Amino acid sequence: MGTVVFKDFSFKYSNLKEPTLKNINIVINSGEKVLIAGPSGSGKSTLAHCINGLIPFRYKGDIKGTVKVDDVIPQKDGIYKVSEHVGTILQDQDAQFVGLSVGEDVAFIYENNNVVQQEMFRGVDSALEQVNMLNFIKHTPQNLSGGQKQKVAIAGMLASDAPILLFDEPLANLDPASGKKAMEIINEIHKETKKTVIIIEHRIEDVLEHDFNRIIIMNNGEVAADGSPDDILSSNILPDYGLREPLYVEALKKINISILPENKISHIENSIRYKEEVLSAYKNRNIYVKNENKNKMLSIENLSFRYFKDDKYLLNDISFSINEGEILAVLGNNGAGKSTLMKIITGMQKQDKGSIRYQDKSIDKWSIKKRAEIIGYVMQNPNHMITQNMIFDEVAFGMRNFGIPEEEVKRRVEDTLKICGLHKYRKWPVSSLSYGQRKRVTIASILCMHPKILILDEPTAGQDYRNYKEFMTFVDKIKLTGVSIVMITHDMHLALEYADRAVVMSKGKVIAEDSVFNILSNKPILKQADLKSTSISSLAELYGLDSPENFLAYFVNEIKGGESND
């Protein structure tokens, strides 16, 4: 039990002319742990839907060839029969919840299996405790943060008897420490139960820290590569298909170190063999990105917030500035208050104490609409922003509401969709896009408005590396025009490469404001904020270096192209 077999398999969605999957031949054996990766639109999520039965029962289309899940043929035997063999965590958690409370949702599988009530209660408590969500057992799932929703979904999976566990972007909405914990839980489930584990994920570095048997690379609806992690990492397969290698592998290759499969580089500790070569390239150089004195665009002064008068403050005495033409990363664990703070800045919520000033003018009494003229906000979940059926209309929606002439609307939409890698989809319905592609649609709709301050909540979540680079290259360009950019992100690579400064939040307070290199080399701050050091910091520790921030700065510069900031 726990085997998946695709044989000469193709699938075409009913509303598309070309097949999304073409001639797939894959065998996933019982007990294997497999990573499926590929650029956006490569067909990897469609492949997952074929495994868990959502194709053809939710997503209609034409099927050729066969897919078998153990002895079940999904299109013949029905989705209920498939669900006995495959447990799934969807990328879009809102589409997965069925209970009115967290406890009810986790109990759903137990109830379906007629488990006695006392045993069900024990199972629910145990599952929620494993993901640190027991205190939320009575909360409504829809009111949780994205990361908290993901934890609840994993807790529900722990109750499943299915021999195959399928995770579609399990780390997409988790902070780094929670993502590591989630992967540890998945790894533990795999070791203890010997179940087949299939993971679809963009955050390859975070996933590959935990042993995998194979990596399957999808591209243009076909299997582009299928091999062990060491085979894949020793080649250039990942960057060739628009995917990001682990940061330490990028760094080693950047200084022309030759990596062979037998070097077992998928385990970072094996990088000790390259210590002399790496340190010779590094030469203890001091490389810092200098923070120039810039004009303050927005100032947050002693801001505090709570939902109800007798509640504790969710945000407590927050102060920092956003400077003209900079990229500021806002880092911190799920529930630290980052998204709440941004809602206050945009006027969606009203602070209890403190003030917000734009170019020395108080905006405390400004309406949401007036703030929207200068502040653009892209939410974490694209489903909370999209209102139009067609992609072009969604991107044009805000400009049309502000009365911008249609000729100008068309020009801006066309230009922005090209930059965001969506131009070829401009006449598609939004419903045909993947979660990551819908995210880019919402970003495009705000960029079209030409804001002075652009707030991006997890801007690269669900995006492949090629689109990530294209989008961030554009963000770098608009920064040069004087636009201030705030990124709420769990992606430490993103913060390292593109942020001029970082603010770190924990439990509703700002606990650090510094360069990203210093912050990600500061273990007490990382621990307090549930952040995770990058693999280059791990290399510095492996090599026994005293100044990991310098090492980090040097190799990030090398990876970005060697621009010197001496």
TrEMBL record:
Gene Ontology CC terms, in alphabetical order: ATP-binding cassette (ABC) transporter complex
SUPFAM superfamilies referenced in this protein's UniProt entry, alphabetically: P-loop containing nucleoside triphosphate hydrolases
Keywords of this entry: ATP-binding, Cell membrane, Hydrolase, Membrane, Nucleotide-binding, Repeat, Translocase, Transport
CDD domains, per database record: ABC_cobalt_CbiO_domain1 (cd03225)
InterPro entries referenced in this protein's UniProt entry, alphabetically: AAA+_ATPase, ABC_Co_transporter, ABC_transporter-like_ATP-bd, ABC_transporter-like_CS, ABC_transpr_CbiO/EcfA_su, ECF_ABC_transporter_ATP-bd, P-loop_NTPase
Domain called ABC transporter: residue spans: 4-245, 298-532
Keyword Transport: yes
Molecular function (Gene Ontology), one example: ATP hydrolysis activity
One family name in Pfam for this protein: DUF3744
Bilayer topology term: Peripheral membrane protein
Statement: the UniProt record of this protein carries the keyword Transcription: no
Its EC number(s): 3.6.3.-
Places the protein is found: Cell membrane
Entry superkingdom: Bacteria
Function: Probably part of an ABC transporter complex. Responsible for energy coupling to the transport system.
Family stated for the protein in its record: Belongs to the ABC transporter superfamily.
Entry-linked NCBIfam families: PRK13648.1 (NF010167)
Record protein name field: Putative HMP/thiamine import ATP-binding protein YkoD
Name of the gene: ykoD
